[in-house]
Amino acid sequence: MQPPLGNERPPPPGRPVSAFVPGAAVPPPPFAAGGPFARPPQSGATAPAFGAAPPAAMGGFRGPPPSQGGPFGAGPPPQGPFTTSAPPSQGPFASAPPSQGLFASAPPSQGPFATAPPSQSPFTSPPPSQVPFAAGPPPTGPFAATPAPFRPPPSSLAQPQSPTGGALPPPPTYARPTQGYYTGAPPANPQFPMSRPAFQQPVQTMPPPPMGPAATFGNQAAYAGPPVGGTLQSLVEDFQSLALSSAPGSLDPGVDVKGLPRPLDGDEEPVKLMEAYPLNCHPRYFRLTTHVIPASQSLVSRWHLPLGAVVHPLAESPDGEEVPVINFGSAGVIRCRRCRTYINPYATFADSGRKWRCNLCTLLNDVPGEYFCALDASGRRYDIDQRPELSKGTVEFVAPTEYMVRPPMPPSYFFLIDVSVSAVRSGLLQVVAKTIKSCLDELPGFPRTQIGFLTFDSTLHFHNFKSSLSQPQMMVVADLDDVFLPLPDDLLVNLVDSRHVVESFLDSLPNMFHDNVNVESALGPALKAAFMVMSQIGGKLLVFQSTLPSLGIGRLRLRGDDVRAYGTDKEHTLRVPEDPFYKQMAAEFTKNQIAVDIFSFSEKYSDIASLGSLAKYTGGQVYHYPSFQAPTHGDKLKLELNRDLTRETAWESVMRIRCGKGVRFTTYHGHFMLRSTDLLALPAVDSDKAFAMQLSLEETLMTTQTVYFQVALLYTSSSGERRIRVHTAAAPVVTDLSEMYCQADTGAIVSLLGRIAVENSLSDKLDSVRQQLQLKLVRSLKEYRNLYVVQHRIGGRLIFPESLRFLPLYILAICKSLALRGGYADVSLDERCAAGFSMMILPVNRLLNFIYPSLYRVDEVLTMEPNKIDASLKRLPLTFQCLDTGGLYLLDDGFTFLVWLGRMLPPELVNNILGLSLANFPDLSKIQLRESDNELSRNFMKILRTLREKDPSYHQLCRVVRQGEQPREGYLLLSNLVEDQMAGTSSYVDWILQIHRQTQS
Amino acid sequence: MVFVWLTAFFLVVALIVLVIYQLMCLADLEFDYINPFDSSSRINKVVMPEFVLQALLSVLFLLSGHWAMFLLSFPLVYYNYTLYQRRQHLVDVTEIFNQLGREKKRRLFKIVSLIVLLFLSLFWMIWSVLSEEDE
Predict the structure, then answer these.
(1) Would the CB atoms of A676 and B36 count as touching at under 8 Å?
(2) Nearest residue on chain A to B97, judged by CA atoms?
């Protein structure tokens, strides 16, 4: 027999697991008593625990009626304190199939039950191993009557781990039916026997204190409530709770800090869904915030979190899972006539294969003759195995000429480089020229790639790269008000033809301007000139800007140091583009298929808010290197520019998400421009960009059982082929709020919430943005609490769904993220805006790592064997208490590595790794880590390399800080320890208490 | 006097036409008949003329001494002025879809108040014509 509680560990015998505070010892709800809802034994060893249950405690809990022949039927007749609360006919447990193991809770083998004679147990007679299954499900059990809301067409949701072993109809949800319900009870009170929490997560391994406030968390509790209103609803739910009641008169908040849920394993992709919906695309491409669709508007209004999706259309797939490419040839791409949906695995064939039914709009379409294939007895096409578009959620179609408005464009790169004095002094030009030169071979799209350069300070310098020249010609245009091109072509040239000219230009670029003392920067006119050069082809425009644009159209003011604006209604205006020129320019760029990437290097304010809007509406990206100095930041710029230039890029693309009847995507969040209400124009898109969107219901009541989504990205590949990448997913429609919570995807929710918050910060004060976030969290937990508050006595605990256990911490982390934290003094305006732009494009896993960075203790693993190091790196909670003064720690937020040296760290370790001694008080801000010739240093650099390889989209700059080195330690490390209390923000414990108080009110 | 009312009447008609034109552009955009670039450039072209006409209308009422009508038309002028001050008078092509609802609502309110003005000036025009004939 499979233990039904497969995901639990057997409770350690004889250890009181939780305790209620005295004040909380009121009669627990019926299911609180451990006895009758005996946890199905996992082994013979735990089975005798049933025998220890005192009959008095189980009196009120009537199992299924004896007629069902289950061992529960042998329970004593209703009597005792719970009789009234659980009438046999309506008792909460009578209605649920016992074999679901829902009432799992095992009394400890010691404690109140130890005195009960085993012979009184009703459970002693059947062999323990048969207890849970001996009770067959009542034929009219709750699941028989429950409308099964999850009915994916092709695949059944029957769970292999279902404890019923097939005796029951598959449960209607994919809620794990096998969790034990946990509640605590004072060990001293035999009337309310303590039930056993189902230890499951790593955090539960620590025993709560035996006395006083208990913090036991992570108990997956599944239980079935009483039938409401006579109808048997889907009552299976699991929730977790966190005891927060403190002992009266005690200052202790009553929370076990170590027991709080922490996402130390990073993002949890909902890959389980792939088992339920094998035809869906992988969640790395498409994630709903909750993988069900509410059936009615009223349900939507009770779901206070955002309802939507995160789409990452070009996510890198691991080896072996490459996206199949399909060419339909003469049949053309097969799409629905009415709603233009592409053929997908959920489409069904009818009329012996001559027609196919669109799964989104249910229209019956003709199958083209070339595509026809006969159906087998079950209605499947015989060739289904040869056709990936009918069996895989993610495919790529080769688009014929109807999908082109012009011949596919060649990949083209145009560089707009600020050569004013600050760029020259910081060594920026050398790094850029060298990096571009080293990338020339790897630029995608050989041999069609186009390239061009324009440099500018107070004038514009055009460069002629005509292939017949041996040296590039520079032409200076000083008229900034009326920009014109000095020559009609040869400014953007084919790389292969003009390779030698381009190379000689890049070689001479740093020297060309090395004695430039011009401090002005005419970015606006330069953008106009670049637009004129590129408008015919489109492509990618890379802007290297090292000062605030000061000349011509689009000049900007120093407005970032306006302290007075903070906290007033005008605060947000600092975060939106000041000059409409940049938005207009962005619109023009998008129209002409030009994507803009901004590289900003200024040590002073450079108005990223304005510059970034160029990237925001063209599908670009903002890179910010504050106070760039080539020796320190050179590597980072080099590798990130290299990535930007060489990654596979989809050109002149548009993306549309179709969904089935009744739902509609309303708002979109990310870097793109809306071409029509649901069409995202993306001049260039690559694997580092994700998009988020919100759903709304169009009808008050959904009539379908499943809603399908189809993401289609039409693009030109670098090789010059027009392609359509199609991701298809299905989600069930549910009528129950608890299902929505059950299927919630924290990563997607956090990603969407973060983007909404960043957008709100453009029109509102930071403070109110944070409050809105908190309000959303509170409302959703309150709604969830209301689902249970009737049946459970949950006074002193915060309850939350297992799927959202990390949500409170992540929302706290969003509030403390670079983009939203604090006020004026906490983050410089440019950094805040740059972080905001990054948060708008980051895929889910990188966003989560950005807001809740990984912290590792490194010194202990450095001495290990190199191949064991990776396995022994453990993420730590982000709190100062985790930092040991004798340790070396590494904080990785995806953009920066921060190496923290404890005060008591052995000097030789520091010497080996840094190559210098701390005793001389060196300036650690300028330090660069190089691999030196010793084991520790080699291992350390290996760790850094491994972490960098995990996420190639950014190169983490390594910064070193010593304990107590203020103020660097403060803003580099301490402000990233999101669980700690900082100026004006709450610590994790306070946050939980705050949320808890608000959910109760 | 008739001449004043006649001018006012034509001004109001012109304003209504301009606002309806803007509304049509927005509706076309919503139903995907034109792209946002064209839609916003068309709208932005007529925004300033509309504001100027509106101001002219108010000035006309003020100078001709029709205080009640001036008070009725002045709030629109003031509203336009505040929009201009905040640089929100032009539609933003990059955010036009997010602002579609707001922009439409704005113009619907405008059109309702303009229609009220239209009927009032029509009424006064006929009234003044009749009273002149009586004299």
Answers:
(1) yes
(2) A677
Q: A676, B35: Cβ pair inside 8 Å?
A: yes
Say yes or no to pLDDT of A74 above 60: no
Q: Are residues A779 and A660 in the same domain?
A: yes
Mean pLDDT of A323-333: 90
The reply to whether A300 and A420 lie within a common domain is no
Residues in chain A with CB shorter than 8 Å from the CB of B93 are 583-584, 587
Are both A724 and A861 inside the same structural domain? Answer: no
Q: Both A659 and A636 in a single domain?
A: no
HSE-CB at A715 with a 13 A cutoff on CA atoms is 27
Distance (Å) from the C-alpha of residue A673 to the closest C-alpha of chain B?
A: 6
Q: Could you report the per-residue pLDDT of A569-593, keeping only the tens digit for each?
A: 788 888 888 888 999 999 999 999 9
CA distances from A381 to A377, A390, A638 (A): 9, 9, 52
Q: What distance in Å separates the CA atoms of residue B37 and residue B35, rounded to the nearest whole number?
A: 6
Query: Which of B90, B93, B97 lies nearest to residue A677, judging by beta carbons?
Result: B97
Q: Which CATH number belongs to the domain containing residue A937 in this structure?
A: 3.40.20.10
Among B87, B97, B100, most A C-beta atoms within 10 A, so best to mutate, is: B97
Contact check, Cβ <8 Å, B93/A583: yes
Q: Dihedral of the CA atoms A317, A322, A324, A325 (nearest 10)?
A: 90
Examine residue A149 and state whether it is found in any structural domain, yes or no.
Answer: no
Q: Which of B87, B90, B97 sits opposite A674 (nearest CB)?
A: B97
* A461, A900, A961 from A945: Cα distances, Å: 40, 18, 20
pLDDT at A35: 37
A88-136 pLDDT, tens per residue?
Answer: 333 333 333 433 333 334 343 443 333 333 334 334 333 433 333 333 3
Residue A973 is predicted with a pLDDT of 84
Residue A1 above 50 pLDDT?
A: no
- Per-residue pLDDT band for B78 (boundaries 50, 70, 90) equals very high
- Which residue of chain B comes nearest to A671, CA vs CA? B94
Q: Name the residue range of residue A868's domain.
A: 853-977
Are residues A931 and A810 part of one domain?
no
Closest CA to A218 of A241, A190, A250, A245: A241
Cα distance between residue A671 and residue A841, in whole Å = 7
A692 and A734 belong to one structural domain: yes
Q: Which residues of B touch A (CB under 8 A)?
A: 29-30, 32, 35-37, 87, 90, 92-94, 96-98
A591 vs B contacts (CB less than 8 Å): 37
Element (H, E) at B116: helix B96-134
> B94 and A580: CB-CB below 8 Å?
no
Instruction: Find, among A669, A701, A688, the residue nearest to A289 by Cα.
Output: A669
- Dist CA A55 CA A481 (whole Å): 93
Q: Are residues A371 and A456 in the same domain?
A: no
Q: Residue A338 falls within a domain, yes or no?
A: yes
- Over residues A711-745, the pLDDT tens digits come to 999 999 999 999 999 999 999 999 989 889 989 99
Extract the tokens encoding A949.
Answer: 């390889």
ipTM of the complex: 0.88
CA distance B52 to chain A (A): 22
Q: Residues A22-35: pLDDT tens digits?
A: 443 344 343 333 33
* Residue range A331-341: mean pLDDT, rounded: 92
Residue at A308 is within a domain: yes
3-class DSSP assignment, residue B114:
helix
Residue to test with chain A: of B39, B47, B94, most A Cβ within 10 A: B94
One domain, residues A516 and A621? yes
Question: And the tokens for A429?
Answer: 């030009």
Q: Is the residue at A241 inside a domain?
A: no
Distance from CA of A852 to the nearest CA of B (A): 30
Please report residues of A whose CB lies closer than 8 A to that of B98.
667
Residue A697 above 60 pLDDT?
Answer: yes
Q: What is the number of structural domains in chain A?
A: 4
pLDDT tens track for A523-548: 999 999 999 999 999 999 999 999 99
Query: How far off is chain A from B120, nearest CA to CA, in Å?
Result: 39
Nearest CA in chain B to A668: B98
